[in-house]
Specification:
It is a single chain. This protein has a single domain (about 25-240), classed as Vaccinia Virus protein VP39 (Rossmann fold, 3-Layer(aba) Sandwich), CATH 3.40.50. Helix 1 packs parallel to helix 2 (about 55-65), helix 1 (about 25-40) runs antiparallel to helix 8 (about 205-215) and helix 5 crosses helix 6. Strand 2 and strand 3 form a beta hairpin. The strands form 2 sheets. It has an 8-stranded mixed β-sheet with strand order 6-5-4-7-8-10-9-11, sandwiched between helices. A 3-stranded antiparallel β-sheet has the order 1-2-3. Helix content is about 30%, strand content about 25%. It is built from 9 helices and 11 strands. The chain starts with 8 loop residues before the first strand and ends in a 25-residue tail after the last helix. It has helices spanning about 25-40, 55-65, 80-85, 105-110, 135-145, 160-170, 185, 205-215, 225-230; strands at about 10, 15, 20-25, 45-50, 70-75, 95-100, 115-120, 145-155, 175-180, 195-200, 220-225. It has about 260 residues and is of the alpha/beta class.
């Protein structure tokens, strides 16, 4: 539900201040913002495709920190997009275009090599839909990205990480460079939580990302290279015919307060 609070903040896909879109509070949104910060030189505009819109927290962040960026936001929830347009309108000249459409269909229709940054944060209820969890979906992401582009997805899982490992296997079949970002307690399997998956064709300088994530109020760990290969532990890519939605969060996994 959209809630425009007395101080201009929004509770939804990540609390934000309408007067300061660079102010973020939800941990996974902050980590995605760190990816945005490292995707190009500071302030340089980007072509961004967002799969999943929410209240447009991250698109607003990109527009504020990288003026001149062209952003397409795809969300199948027409009602939510209508509420956002009515109650949280975008500033004129934001460069953000909203599309009420299925994320996979819109991704497959994207022009090849047209996107610098592809951010996926799509949940049907509390689960990532099955048609966004296959290797065919990963290949569609690979076609849309430019050679130096970055894919970043918000996922959620817990030990034994069957879902997260399958997602990494999907993207390893397409991209040579992978990383995951998450709180140590989540990555150690101690609790269910959000993990950001990163994929790219060219090596990404992870050192700045490591520093930014370590300095957050809730520090996160960046896992890549040999450590990530061990984590994947031989998982295999999942085809459309066998794809399933992400796991149902346990009761209270994302409760606030």
């Amino acid at each position: 539900m959209i809630r425009d609070t007395d101080d201009g903040a929004y509770d939804g896909d990540g609390t934000f201040d309408l007067d300061d879109p660079s102010h973020l509070e939800f941990e996974y949104v902050t980590r995605l913002a760190h990816v945005v910060d490292g995707a190009a030189e500071p302030g340089a505009p980007l072509d961004v495709l967002h799969l999943g819109g929410g209240a447009l927290t991250l698109p607003r962040y990109v527009a504020a920190t990288r003026p001149g960026s062209r952003q397409d936001v795809v969300d199948a929830d027409r009602g939510l997009l209508g509420l956002v347009r009515e109650y949280l309108p975008l500033p004129e000249g934001s460069g953000i275009t909203l599309h009420a459409a299925d994320a996979r269909a819109r991704l497959e229709a994207a022009a090849p090599a047209s996107v610098d940054l592809l951010i996926a944060d799509v949940f049907g209820g509390s689960r990532v839909p099955a048609h966004l969890t296959s290797v065919e979906y990963a290949r569609a992401a690979g076609r849309a990205l430019r050679a130096d582009g970055i894919y970043a997805a918000n996922l959620a899982d817990s030990a034994p990480f069957a879902f997260l490992r399958s997602q990494l296997a999907n993207f390893a079949a397409v991209f040579p460079e992978l990383a995951v970002v998450g709180e140590p307690a989540v990555l150690r399997g101690r609790r269910f939580g959000n993990v950001v998956l990163l994929a790219s064709y060219t090596p990404v300088d992870v050192d700045p990302l490591v520093r930014r994530c370590a300095a957050d109020a809730f520090p996160a760990r960046v896992t890549h290279g040999a450590a990530l290969t061990r984590f994947i532990d031989g998982a295999r890519p999942v085809a459309d015919a066998d794809a399933v939605a992400s796991p149902e969060p346990p009761a209270g996994a994302f409760s606030v307060g």
